[in-house]
Design brief:
153 residues, alpha+beta, four-stranded mixed sheet, 4 helices, 4 strands, 34% helix
């Protein structure tokens, strides 16, 4: 992605903020995959149902109650941050991870309307296919520092 160093460095830990539907089975599974594949610890996480998401998305004019949209705020701790949604956000995350996830970079040539059409199709059926929690799961202790709360912004 132009202008964003997703490779990270020791000082780049938690550079990007990933906002996800905390009660979605698919979203929680993907967060676990990102945690496993993010060896550089480039990502921090917050559920869309959290006050963090409301504060961050308000800055970008997005609705945190729209649980069908996956968000990434690249370089959220320093300016200029970039707000990515849906298919573009998913590709940003995948290309920031190690192989084989990085291979998804080949899909960045696709136009947004194609990426978002596929994204919307999956989002529309995700609860039925992957299930839904009654409340956001608590992160495992070894990952707790990767999930932010209001004081970390």
């Amino acid at each position: 992605m132009p202008g964003v160093d997703v490779q990270g460095s020791p000082t780049a830990r938690g550079r990007h903020l990933l906002l996800y539907d905390g009660v979605c089975g698919l979203c929680n599974g993907l967060i676990q995959a990102v945690l496993a594949g993010d060896r550089r610890s480039a990502f921090h996480f917050a559920a869309l149902q959290s006050p963090v998401a409301a504060a961050v998305l308000d800055r970008f004019g997005s609705d945190p109650h729209d649980l069908d949209t996956f968000h990434v705020v690249a370089d959220y701790r320093s300016g200029p941050s970039r707000h990515l949604t849906k298919g573009r956000a998913v590709l940003f995350v995948m290309t920031a991870l190690d192989w084989p996830w990085r291979a998804a970079g080949l899909l960045t040539v696709l136009p947004d309307w194609v990426l978002n059409t596929v994204y919307d199709l999956v989002a529309r059926h995700r609860y039925r296919v992957f299930g839904q929690y009654e409340r956001c799961p608590v992160p495992r202790p070894e990952h707790r520092d990767r999930f932010i709360d209001q004081g970390d912004l």
